[in-house]
Specification:
The complex is a heterodimer.
Chain A: H1 2-29, E1 34-41, H2 48-68, E2 70-72, E3 75-85, H3 90-103, E4 109-111, H4 116-129, E5 133-135, E6 152-154, H5 159-172, E7 177-183, H6 186-199, E8 205-212, H7 220-229, E9 233-237, H8 241-253, E10 260-262, H9 268-274, H10 276-279, E11 283-286, H11 295-308, H12 316-333, H13 338-347, E12 349-350, E13 360-362, E14 368-369, E15 373-378, E16 383-389
Parallel strand pairs in A: 1-3, 1-4, 4-5, 5-6, 7-8, 7-9, 9-10, 10-11
Antiparallel strand pairs in A: 2-3, 11-15, 12-13, 13-14, 15-16
Helix pairs in contact in A: 2-12, 3-4, 5-6, 8-9, 12-13
Chain B: H1 3-34, H2 41-57, H3 62-89, H4 94-117, E1 132-135, E2 138-141, H5 142-164, H6 166-176, H7 178-183, H8 188-213, H9 220-235, H10 240-260, H11 266-280
Antiparallel strand pairs in B: 1-2
Chain lengths: ~400, ~290
């Protein structure tokens, strides 16, 4: 009788162990549950020279995050990405967003590394959809505003912040008569608006505001006009590498010595293509420097260089951070629920990132808050030197 | 307005006009002989630039690149001529058919180039002719001077070929009347193939010079081709000297208008000049009115 009881217990224990093992084996074979991500971004078209780094960086980060998994309430999840091409064209962007909203079910989050013009065009559709959207590319303050917007988040700094830093720098050097030379696009308009807003209160005089068409390769007529105005500095708002290299070459050919300043779109990649000596002394404002001595930056730059060759362009780092911020927010939320996820994004600080000097904290309007650098290109060191923490 | 400023802008315009001329003359040769509008001409320019860049990066001297790459590309273009253009020429609606076919071909080539080389610009590095040449108190980048010299040499050679050789005479005869030329023993099929190859080679040469002056990328031809078509119409379709003069007019107008008026309006000024000429001479600067005997 006594042994029968022991046998029953032992049999039950054995059955339980076998069942647990079978369940574990089945669980190991089952794919991890998916977190469905819609990505609306340029994948083709003439904008790709400045957006390829964003696409590559997103792919890299997705693979890294999926390799370790997003652990929500003890269960490992992976991101399932659905890519939609907006071609950096507002009309195409609206169609792409509508298609994404109609085709993908469920949507847990939308990543929108998109041009400012598209971001502004699709903003209301995204807001109406009620999905949480993270944008890593647009500098326009019009994407997340007005204050109190609950679902849109932006990790790229506002163009206005840069304007303040640049104006303060110019004033501190006594360079008060400036010519603006900007790409005739929504992006160029946002950049120069930020600069102009900051310039007037600080007493800077904008001698002329010249605009050039996207893709311009011949800047000599502009430079000749600028030379005639004899400004203290030229603020150049261009984001296309071929425009930038052409501008620098023609600037040097005219033997101009007027100090140059510009947004963070002037990167070491431009210096490598044009020659470092052509960019020597140019000042920019930026939220990252490829040679910055932080583990996250070193790891990212090394991986990117090994896989794609070259230094990632300015849209790469903020895009790389998106999957990490999202993963961390889902983990902190402990749920895939939209409201819990949104709350986690709003309430927590995200660290260990590449862009934004490593840290992001969203304000109440969804704009990431962080510090910017003021940097200078140094041809002798073939490096971008941080002059001072600007903001 | 100082004379130095005008000279400086005119020099910039002449260099730009030289490239426009190479591209537009290639286009006008193909139109003049085959009577087709080659919408893939822009992509031929781009592929020629990539071919030239590949040779230069492999150590071929730049001046040799300027000879070899267009010749190679011209020979390669015969495959397109034989494979796509010729079969369509037999159709009654060959002009619409070839227009659509070359438009499609251009899209395939441009997207293929983007897939193969990515979207980033490439540069002839080290620059083949760095530095600047003083011209009075103005300057001319050495590369621009080389561009103008190469274009001048090409057009002089083309003139000698067309007016001083038997084959050149056959080409001109075919351009005037394919049927009559065939009746007097000209192998018009060969002449048409040669015209397509020369036109494509000129596009490739223009692409290499453009790529050296600025940058080489998959979309480099698209922005230029509209200007090239304007030049062809302005000069008179199929008229080579007309295309040359129109190229210089457009290049210099663009640069001078950009510097003296406002760079934003340089294309607008070009369009106004274009419209003005068409209102006075709808057949273009050198073209004959429709219905005139050649």
């Amino acid at each position: 009788m006594r042994y029968a009881w022991v046998r029953t217990i032992a049999s039950l224990a054995l059955l339980t162990a076998l069942e647990a093992a079978a369940l574990a084996a089945a669980a190991a074979q089952e794919p991890a549950p998916k977190i469905s991500v819609v990505i609306v971004t340029p994948l083709s078209g003439t904008v790709m020279p400045i957006m390829e780094a964003s696409k590559h960086s997103l792919q890299m980060a997705l693979e890294e995050v999926n390799a370790r998994g997003v652990v929500v309430r003890g269960q490992k999840h992976v991101f399932e990405a659905h890519w939609f091409d907006d071609e950096c064209n507002p009309r195409v962007g609206v169609s792409a967003v509508r298609a994404a909203l109609a085709k993908v079910r469920p949507i847990h989050v939308i990543w929108a590394p998109m041009c400012s013009s598209v971001a502004v065009a699709v903003r209301d559709i995204l807001l109406e959809s009620g999905h949480v959207v993270l944008n890593s590319t647009s500098g326009t303050p019009r994407f997340v505003g007005p204050r109190g917007n609950p679902y849109l988040f932006k990790t790229k700094e506002d163009a206005d912040w840069r304007g303040h830093n640049e104006v303060r720098y110019l004033k501190s050097r006594g360079l008060t008569r400036v010519v603006l030379l900007a790409q005739n696009t929504d992006w160029g308009a946002d950049i120069t608006r930020g600069f102009l807003r900051a310039a007037e209160p600080e007493g800077l005089t904008v001698l002329r505001h010249l605009k050039f068409d996207k893709g311009t390769q011949e800047f000599t007529p502009y430079l000749i006009q600028i030379r005639g105005l004899a400004p203290d500095a030229i603020y150049v708002a261009s984001q296309a590498i071929d425009e930038q290299v052409a501008f620098l070459r023609q600037y040097r050919q005219l033997a101009l010595k007027i100090p140059l300043i510009g947004p963070p779109t002037w990167t070491p990649e431009v210096a490598e293509k044009a020659g470092w000596e052509l960019m020597d002394g140019m000042v920019t404002t930026s939220a990252w420097v490829p040679t910055e001595d932080r583990p996250a930056v070193r790891r990212y730059v090394d991986k990117y260089r090994a896989r794609f060759g070259g230094i990632p362009g300015f849209n790469g780092p903020p895009a790389y951070d998106l999957p990490f911020i999202t993963a961390r927010a889902f983990e902190l939320a402990g749920s895939l629920d939209r409201e819990a996820f949104r709350k986690a994004l709003r309430e927590h600080m995200f660290t260990g990132l590449v862009y934004s000097r490593g840290t992001v904290k969203f304000d109440e309007s969804g704009q990431a808050q962080f510090e910017l650098f003021l940097t200078r290109f140094d041809a002798a060191r073939r490096d971008v030197v941080i002059i001072n923490p600007a903001r | 307005m100082s004379p130095d400023l005008v000279i400086q802008l005119a020099l910039t315009g002449v260099a730009l006009g030289a490239i426009y001329a190479l591209v537009a003359v290639g286009l006008t040769i193909v139109f003049g002989l085959l009577r087709i509008i080659n919408f893939a001409h822009a992509q031929f320019l781009m592929l020629g630039a990539f071919l030239g860049l590949a040779l230069y990066q492999r150590g071929v001297p730049y001046l040799a690149v300027l000879l070899v790459a267009p010749a190679m590309f011209g020979a390669l273009s015969l495959l397109i001529d034989r494979g796509i253009i010729r079969p369509l020429l037999r159709s009654k609606s060959f002009q619409a058919d070839t227009l659509l076919a070359t438009l499609g071909l251009g899209l395939v080539l441009e997207n293929g180039a983007q897939a193969a080389w990515g979207a980033q610009p490439y540069y002839f590095s080290p620059p083949p002719f760095p530095g600047v040449l003083p011209v009075g108190s103005a300057f001319l980048p050495t590369q621009s001077a080389v561009t103008v010299a190469v274009a001048a040499a090409v057009f002089a050679t083309l003139w000698v070929f067309l007016h001083r050789t038997r084959l050149g005479t056959a080409v001109r005869a075919t351009a005037q009347s394919r049927e009559t030329a065939a009746l007097v023993g000209v192998e018009t099929e060969r002449v048409l193939g040669l015209a397509f190859a020369v036109g494509s080679g000129l596009a490739a040469l223009g692409g290499i010079l453009l790529g050296t002056l600025y940058s080489t990328n998959f979309a480099m031809g698209s922005s230029l081709i509209v200007v090239a078509f304007i030049i062809v119409i302005l000069g008179g379709p199929g008229h080579i000297p007309g295309a040359l003069v129109a190229s210089l007019v457009i290049g210099v107008t663009e640069a001078v208008a950009g510097g003296l008026v406002n760079p934003r309006f340089q294309r607008l000024v070009v369009m106004l000049v274009f419209l003005g000429v068409l209102m006075l001479r709808p057949q273009g600067l050198f073209g004959r009115p429709v219905g005139d005997a050649p």
